[in-house]
Sequence to fold (354 residues):
Amino acid sequence: MPESSLSSRERVIRAIGRQPTDVLPAAPLILDLAAKYHGVSIGAFATDGRVMSEAQIALQAELQQDVIFVGLDNYYIAEGFGCEIDVPEDEIPHLRKPAVDNIADVYSLKVPSPRSDGRMPVMLEATRWVREELGDDIAVRTPGTGPFALASYFVGTQQFLVEVGLAEAGLPEGQPEAIHFALDLAADALIEFGKACWDAGSDLLHCGDSLASCDMISPAQYEKWAFPYQQKVIKAWKKYGARTLLHICGDSTKVLDLYAQTGADVVEIDHRVDLAYAKQRIGGQTCLLGNVDTVSTLLLGTTQGVRAASENCIAQAGAGSAYMLGSGCMVSRNTPIENVKALVDTAHSQPNEF
Fold:
């Protein structure tokens, strides 16, 4: 294995900036796996920033990955808007009741404070704890749902998609102005939360908008209803001085150009996308992250299979820097630790081919 001369944080920042690194950064998307590894409940992990940070720090000491991702579910901001969220002890929190009953009622909603509302303070506390405990040795990635997903929680995801369909079809009962208001409101909330995360010590602000996947909506719908608001969020974060990441699950092949046009410094690529094609298409515009299959390879596969898949990803996208090896999506909490370690070790065994 090549000798490491950079800290994890330096390695990640240099990769994003298209500068040579000692080895390839490893950044699998790990959330509740840390809770299981550390022996704490999902409920405590979701609601106590100290518990969350201690669990992530403990797992990072075992894996030596280059990025700690502070966060868990997508509802910590929605809770601040008045959505009722169930937080089970052993499952990821989920939406129990939307903030309003009808899309027309979204005009009554206001942007919540990231420092006092919902579970946003939990995420900020965890970010501060990780930074205080590990200093500048580790890169910290913090959550910011996505504007399309967050807006959907205001009325319930299924109803929101129905509303988008009605508006897209131009039907009389459609309410496009209310949808756009909800999306703007969600974007404004994400902007404020991201700024607070940056102030708390984050290195990479995450816009995760998987409801806007082309597995859920068409490319044309993505361009009209999701892309402008993702672009708004990322542009505001970058103006604040932050580094930014866009994560959207599913097959994004047809909209990769738009992903790059959001301005995100990093685009996380799902395993359903051909990584070599993504590198060719947008690798000159943004840093890529991904895309080892989280189920068939990491959860169900062997360490040998993980190494082979990781080496294949590196062969497809590793040359020229601006690439980090990672998982295609969130690593399941039942994934064998040795499989995730194999991904990290494979990245760190590769000298950067700039």
Summary: The chain has a mean pLDDT of 96. The longest strand covers residues 287-292. The chain has one domain: 8-348.
